[in-house]
Amino acid sequence: MEVVILADEAAIGVLVADAVAALVRRRPAAVLGVATGSTPLPVYRELVRRARDGLAPDWSGVTFFTLDEYVGLPAGSAASYRSTIARELTDPLGIDPAQVHGPDPDPDRLPDAGERYEREIHEAGGVDLQLLGIGADGHLAFNEPGSSLVSRTRIKTLTARTRADNARFFGSADGVPRHVLTQGLGTIGEAGHLVLVAVGEGKSAAVAAAVEGPVSAGCPASVMQLHGHATVLLDPAAAAGLERVAYYREVWEGKPDWQGI
After folding, report:
1. 184 is in which domain, residue-wise?
2. Coil, strand, or helix at residue 121?
3. Domain total for the chain?
4. What is the set of active-site residues?
5. Biggest alpha carbon distance in the chain?
6. 48/63 Cα distance (integer angstroms)
7. What is the pLDDT of residues 176-206, one digit of tens each?
8. Are 71 and 179 in contact (CB under 8 A)?
9. Where is average pLDDT lowest: 42-46, 165-169, 246-250?
10. DSSP class of residue 143?
């Protein structure tokens, strides 16, 4: 696992956008895993800025898969993750909606929704780069503490804490759906490159547990320690709980520029 500590979220956004753009230029039919929430916004804004300035790669052959989706929202809800990704990233990039995929929350098709989504990802060739955030309790996607480290895409019940964390998108915790479809930790771990972004002191304890603690279902994000190509990008506040900060900085500063992340 590579840990990179940068000055702020803007610098993180630039570095991750560099990695995404390099992947798409190298592999025009790349498959990207995208996350929602506030954490990836600097990345998306940087990618959109580059497209606006004529500096973007060709997105026409790229396929996108979202990590998760709420269950129980009205069709086309602005709060759905499919709508959120369209609003924040794919529509501004001019991506054809047919290139963007998410778990199917249709209530009549929920029993096999996870299996169907797994097949979609497999048939696309698997995710090349998966963008991730981390919850304050260490959850990854909607894999709460206690989730199996080899779990697959499935329906999950949200805890009160996670619903409270997402209340800002719905006006109150009571407005947050109780269920989601989410990629499992085993599913996420099959991506070629995992890129986790965390900013702010509120994420520091979870980051420390995920990066330097034991691999445990108690901190789902710790499963990234088992991945062959995992990158964790942090601002100083999010890195505040780490013991090996000096080491991470020294290694990053000495890394050849051509390697990227």
Report:
1. 2-259
2. helix
3. 1
4. 68, 137, 139, 144
5. 54
6. 17
7. 999 999 999 999 999 999 999 999 999 999 9
8. yes
9. 165-169
10. B
Structure tokens at 241: 């709980």
Element of type H or E holding 233? strand 230-234
Question: Which of 40, 29, 37 is CA-nearest to residue 64?
Answer: 29
The contacts found for 206-212 with CB under 8 angstroms, 24 or more apart, are 206/134, 206/135, 206/136, 206/137, 206/138, 207/134, 207/232, 207/234, 207/238, 207/239, 207/241, 207/242, 208/241, 208/242, 208/243, 209/138, 210/134, 210/138, 211/1, 211/3, 211/242, 212/242, 212/243, 212/244
Q: Helix or strand or coil: residue 62?
A: coil
Sheet holding 154-157, edge to edge: 68-71, 179-182, 154-157
Distances (CA, A) of 259 to 2, 19, 22, 120, 254: 12, 10, 11, 31, 11
| 54-63 tens-digit pLDDT | 999 999 999 9
**Which residues are CB-neighbours of 75 under 8 A, at least 6 positions away?**
none
208: tokens are 């420390």
CATH number for the domain harbouring residue 240: 3.40.50.1360
- Listing DSSP states for 163-198 in one string gives HHHTGGGTSSGGGS-SEEEE--HHHHTTSSEEEEEE
pLDDT at 162 over 90: no
Positive or negative: CA dihedral 117, 36, 13, 244: negative
Least trusted range by pLDDT, from 75-84, 98-107, 241-250: 75-84
Q: Give the SS3 label for residue 219.
A: strand
Residue whose C-alpha is closest to residue 40's, from 163, 130, 147: 130
> Is residue 41 scored above 90 in pLDDT?
yes
Q: Tell me if 89 sits within 8 A of 55, measured CB to CB.
A: no
Q: Which of 65-79, 155-169, 183-197, 242-256 has the lowest mean pLDDT?
A: 155-169
